[in-house]
């Protein structure tokens, strides 16, 4: 795993959170993107070589809607950049970790993504991200 690609933060109101994080970071978000398959709208802030990804639910059955209902707003996942997501999925499976999707799926910002169960990583939901060439 190469670096922290982004930290995902679940928010109830994306526009309000954009204003809050623009004030925190001292600069505006650089893009927004809807990921329909995940039921989310996202916005991104650069921070060094990493990003903050704000996520707001667009449907009641999205992971973000369920997480906010159960756990409130806040840090939702940590995403690690990888060169070869299929190799990392296989490596983690062989280590005994449960992958939530064994086939990489389309994420935001031109990435293939896969998630690991938070109960297998001390209560942290881990996302793997591979740049689509
Ligand atoms: C924008 C696209 C992409 C990107 O490009 O970056 C994204 O970031 S998409 C982000 C949203 N998508 C996902 O999170 C997909 C993967 N997530 C899931 O499959 C589920 O959310 C989940 C993690 C399996 C949880 O599913 P849920 O139906 O909510 O089950 P439970 O409520 O029963 O949760 C089981 C257990 O895990 C705890 N939990 C849930 N979410 C988290 C979390 N984000 N961080 C830490 N722990 C979490 C939950 O509290 C349960 O624990 P117990 O209550 O102790 O049983
Ligand atoms: Co993410």
Please summarize what this structure is:
This protein has 133 residues and is α+β, with helices and mostly antiparallel strands.
Q: What can you see in these coordinates?
A:
- This protein is α+β, with helices and mostly antiparallel strands and 133 residues long.
- Helix content is 23%, strand content 38%.
- It has an 8-stranded mixed sheet.
- β6 and β7 (111-116) form a beta hairpin.
- The mean pLDDT is 97.
- Residues 8, 35, 38, 40, 42, 53, 55, 63-64, 66-67, 70, 76-77, 79, 100, 107-108, 111, 113, 115, 118-119, 123, 125, 127 line the site of ligand LP2KCY5N.
Keyword list:
8 strands; binds ligand LP2KCY5N; 133 residues; 23% helix; binds cobalt (II) ion; globular
Helix fraction by DSSP (H/I, runs of at least 4)? 10-25%
Strand tally, please?
A: 8
| Class based on secondary structure composition and strand pairing | alpha+beta
Cofactors and ligands: ligand LP2KCY5N, cobalt (II) ion
Q: Which geometry do the CA atoms define?
A: globular
Q: Strand order within the widest sheet?
A: 2-3-4-1-5-8-7-6
- DSSP helical segment count: 3
Low-confidence stretches: none
Strand content: 35-45%
Helix and strand element order: EHEEEHEHEEE
Q: How far apart, in Å, are the first and last alpha carbons?
A: 18 Å
Radius of gyration: 14 Å
**Sheet having the most strands:** 8 strands, mixed
Mean pLDDT: 97
């Amino acid at each position: 795993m190469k670096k922290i690609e982004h930290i995902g933060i679940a928010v109830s109101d994306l526009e309000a959170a954009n204003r809050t994080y623009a004030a925190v970071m001292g600069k505006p978000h650089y893009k927004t993107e809807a990921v329909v398959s995940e039921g989310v709208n996202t916005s991104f802030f650069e921070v060094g070589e990493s990003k903050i990804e704000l996520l707001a639910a667009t449907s009641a059955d999205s992971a973000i809607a369920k997480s906010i209902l159960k756990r409130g707003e806040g840090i939702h996942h940590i995403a690690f950049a990888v060169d070869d997501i299929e190799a990392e999925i296989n490596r983690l499976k062989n280590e005994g970790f449960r992958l939530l999707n064994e086939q990489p799926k389309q994420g935001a910002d031109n990435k293939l993504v896969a998630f690991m169960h938070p109960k297998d990583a001390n209560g942290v939901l881990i996302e793997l991200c591979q740049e689509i060439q």
